[in-house]
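In this section we turn from sequence analysis to structure. A common task in structural bioinformatics is to predict how a protein folds when a small molecule is present, because the ligand can shape the pocket around it. The inputs are simple: the amino acid sequence and a SMILES string for the ligand, here NAP. Study the lines below before reading on.
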Amino acid sequence: MKKKGLWAIILAACLLFAGCGRSDPKGENAAPDNSTWAPVQTDTTAAETTASESDSGDQNQPEQNTEAGAGENESVSGYPEFDFENKTVTLNSGYEMPILGIGTYALSDTQAENSVYWALKAGFRLIDTARIYGNEAGVGRGLQRAIDEGIVSREEVFITTKMWTSDFDNGDAAVDASLQRLGVDYIDLMILHHSQPRNDVDAYQAMERAVEAGKLKSIGLSNYYEPEDFDRLVNAATILPALLQNETHPYHQSGVMKDHIAQYGTILESWFPLGGRGNTQTLFSDETISAIASAHGVSSAQVIIRWHLQAGNICIPGSSNEQHIIEDYDVWDFELTEEEMAQMTALEKDERFADY
Ligand SMILES: NC(=O)c1ccc[n+]([C@@H]2O[C@H](COP(=O)([O-])OP(=O)(O)OC[C@H]3O[C@@H](n4cnc5c(N)ncnc54)[C@H](OP(=O)(O)O)[C@@H]3O)[C@@H](O)[C@H]2O)c1
């Protein structure tokens, strides 16, 4: 995925000097010499203008210039805007990320290989896996199959993986092991799988080193459900988390965390977007969701995915079924109305399906 270039330097400088409205008790993040904070869009118009300027200006720049991101020292500005035309969003790291991806939780290594291959064939360009799923190697094989068949190039695909909690004391090795299992020489996004106050800062700092080394492009967090917990990590970080992946669906819309992370330009990604295996029928048969699906002549799964995207949540439905995968990517030709979005918002129950 391509990195937006110089467009936000000026914006960042302004925001940094303005103090960014961000609490930083240690002062470590005020304006570190080697800061790796990166560009974020504040306003669509400005972002579009500067992005296109940067596209032309960046043509001779290396694609994987993480050091350039470090030098830019961009800062906080608000929740990133989705680009529906390109089906991407620009992260606060400056990298573009697809807004709809394939999830691979609970898939065997072989299932993951097939799902990833089918997903890339269907148009997906974002893959979500994790060390603890035990299928990074399968994901890598699915990707390689699609590359070998000319469906995608490595650069067109955005790979996310997660560092598991038992690896937090050995974060540098965990990054290298994921790279090796995936069979790639860089990972687009690595996130800490769960909050673990004992040593998650150490693990995060290992990911920061990996960004400096060009092994990771962006880094982020998963399963941080309290603003204070998120800030605990942010206040010890040099690179802002680009993304927070939390359980999010119509019955648990993550409004508090989403509002909170906006100040850092961090984006929300929904896991269990359809409710999770074994729970999907609860959401699929919800009367509001079914009625909206009938009105558009689409499935409940498609309505839910479309809701995530229009709400500004990166969405990664998991599937081991090729027809479902094709259906899950076929969400670009209809749009939920404002009223339908309001009806979906009203489904909030603050009810999680997972107990972790
Ligand atoms: N960070 C974390 O702690 C965490 C936790 C859980 C998940 N995740 C990530 O988030 C991803 C999504 O979550 P998830 O996979 O657990 O749950 P999910 O996407 O909410 O639901 C997956 C279920 O939906 C079904 N499904 C998918 N598309 C469908 C369609 N069009 N019609 C009918 N059924 C459909 C799948 O069945 P079929 O296989 O039959 O299609 C599967 O049973 C995961 O795969 C994983 O990458 C992260």
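The chain has one domain: 81-345. As an exercise, try to locate the residues that line the NAP site and compare them with your own expectations.
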